[in-house]
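Fig. S4 source data, part A: sequence.
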Amino acid sequence: MPIGESVFVCRLTGCVLFVLFAAFHCTAQNLLRAHAEVVGASAPFTFAQRVIVGPDRNLYFVDPVLSSIFIHDFKTSTVKRLCGPESLGTMVSDVAIGPKGQLWILNQRESKVRRLSPQCELQAEFKVSLIAGKIATNAFGELIVLNTVGRWLFDLFSANGKLLRSFGERIDYGEEVKTQELNNGNIARDSAGGFFFSFNYPPLVRHYSRNGRLLSEFKPESDVPIAPADVMVGGNGQSGSVTAKYQILVLDIAADKQDRLYLLISGKNKAPAIQYGTPKLRVLTKTGRTLKNVTLDHSFHRLTAGDRSLYLLRNRQPFRVDEYVVF
């Protein structure tokens, strides 16, 4: 098939249209192999922990090693540093992008969130819960904070930093360190102001509304047996260590404007899953019905969905970001 043509990939469960920027190979096993490399090994960052599509269609990369945000300009295809330690501080735990291009910066060590203008100027700063894990914005520009400790999994803040509500049931494992470790995961906003949350363990995806109501939950299908999690705490009163061994089935999750879900599927133990990524991509409906399984040409660690494109990030050397355009 010539470059730029489109193909419907259909099963009894539904159809997904992939418009490919490169030639693809589709076997009887329904594998799809295609990519357009957007960012390559010469990228200037040290470690891109996360990639986000902004409202301007540019890609934003957070590099916690350099305490910087880098931006890929989709018009010029260039990557440059947008903000550095002088505006972000020396501890960047996570980043979110607002609907008007505002930058939200989480400093986990200080339990603090800063809101910056698109030009990296400080606009607001406020405290969040102790050891907040992740942040994301919803469709209304409100800030979602994942809590790793406390009664509720999530806090929702207004754009001005006012706490609107706390919600979301944590899975209690009877031991605080294990509960904290296993209630981590990734957030993908939906089109109506709510969001999806994928637990690292067990394999479970929840869908919350903007008002905090649990709309649905499902366990992603897996052909990999998932063993019980083993989280051990060692050390003495002066110092301690945590050894966590469990499998991460869903390495990352994203949602498009139609609320279709894109999951990077691993199933390996935590350390190798995070280190090596996965070439397996699964497309689902918002209720968990599988539309398509794809085996990619490369392994990836993170992904994000824009208006018409899905971007997959390999954040280990050699760096790369591949793009699919989906309808």
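Fig. S4 source data, part B ends here. The chain has a mean pLDDT of 86.
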